[in-house]
Write a structure and sequence with these properties.
303 residues, alpha/beta, Rossmann fold, 7-stranded parallel β-sheet, 3-stranded mixed β-sheet, 12 helices, binds NADP nicotinamide-adenine-dinucleotide phosphate, NAD(P)-bd_dom_sf
């Protein structure tokens, strides 16, 4: 991996005085990755969980403290935010109250004396897709708060395609859109590393950052890379929404959720998912962001 010098931020400080950091979704993959990225960097990490299992997962990721809180309960949020310096937030995906939950989180942070909020939105949050539009409303709410805020706009997480072991079992990789549309991607561990920096220093305050691995790759190209990594042919397929849901374990718990995914995949069918400029991620990481071949090598080594 090509090393480049890290950007020198004029207002940067180190993590030693970072205080207590709150992490939403610490029981899940995205928040868990942020907890792991924070560990050993001088802050007390407080994860949010909703169940015993969730608490175990948050602690396994490295949370020093776990608070039981539901984003829909403002009292829970105020308890979770007591004594917190910086808070990491993302909206639960494809729920109809995504924007309202974001606004409630910002309000609770303002009332609780939190200094900084770091939010994961997404690249192309302006796209006419329901959950993207909800994320855009959260971005807009951050523009109106007096708290320091950081908006991270990642491309599609590489981790949203099935693990290489599962791909090997299936013999194919697919999505509910044509295999030749180009898409922007990023490894969510790179996003987590950048999130940790933005939580522990003032260097990224009040900025919005698109986070992409370099270039755009189609499902056909990724299928080719998976074939090379596995040493066997992986077919690239356009599949139906139902086939995708079955592989993903998505139960479409509401009509809204189904509509979100259907509209998102329809958008990708027409336009792909534009992005892939890695300049910002390069600067923030001090190295090139992980590419698809590198991600597959790492996944294979970890099997
Ligand atoms: N997927 C992508 O490619 C992509 C790309 C760009 C941006 N994003 C954005 O990145 C964010 C994370 O994506 P994800 O959904 O894949 O993350 P995830 O890690 O699967 O999110 C689930 C986590 O959220 C927690 N959670 C859900 N509802 C909650 C509630 N009401 N109160 C408290 N905690 C709650 C869950 O807790 P429990 O364990 O208790 O259920 C779990 O820890 C989303 O905002 C998404 O829009 C995703």
């Amino acid at each position: 991996m090509k090393k480049i010098p890290p950007i020198l931020f004029p207002t940067g400080d180190d993590g030693a005085s970072a205080g207590r950091v709150l992490v939403v979704g610490a029981s899940g993959p995205t928040g868990g990755a942020v907890v792991r990225a924070l560990s050993g960097r001088g802050a007390i990490v407080r994860g949010i969980a909703r169940s015993d299992v969730g608490e175990q997962q948050a602690r396994k990721a490295g949370a020093d403290e776990v608070v039981r809180a539901d984003l829909r309960h403002p009292d829970d949020l105020r308890t979770a935010m007591a004594g917190v310096e910086s808070a990491f937030y993302f909206s639960p995906r494809a729920v109809p109250d995504e924007a309202a939950l974001g606004r409630a989180f910002i309000k609770a942070a303002e009332e609780s004396g939190v200094s900084r909020i770091v939010v994961i939105s997404m690249i192309n949050s302006h796209a006419p897709i329901p959950n993207h539009q909800e994320s855009l409303q959260v971005e807009e709410a951050l523009a109106r708060t007096s708290l320091s805020s950081v908006i991270l706009q990642p491309a599609m997480f590489m981790q949203t395609l099935p693990h290489l072991d599962r791909i090997s079992e299936l013999g194919w990789v697919g999505r509910p859109y044509p295999i030749d549309v180009p898409l922007a991607w990023v490894d969510f561990n790179d996003v987590a590393e950048i999130a940790a920096t933005s939580l522990l220093t003032s260097s990224m305050d009040n900025g919005t950052f698109e986070l992409c691995s370099g270039g755009m790759l189609t499902i056909a190209e990724i299928g080719g890379l998976m074939s090379e990594a596995l040493g066997s042919t992986i077919e690239s397929r356009e599949i139906t929404l139902e086939e995708w849901a079955a592989v993903r374990g998505e139960d479409f718990s509401s009509p809204y959720r189904r509509e979100c995914y259907a509209e998102m995949f329809d958008y990708f069918s027409k336009y792909g998912f534009k992005g892939g400029n890695s300049l910002v991620a390069n600067m923030l990481l001090g190295r090139s962001p992980v590419t698809w071949p590198e991600y597959l090598v790492r996944t294979k080594q970890a099997r």
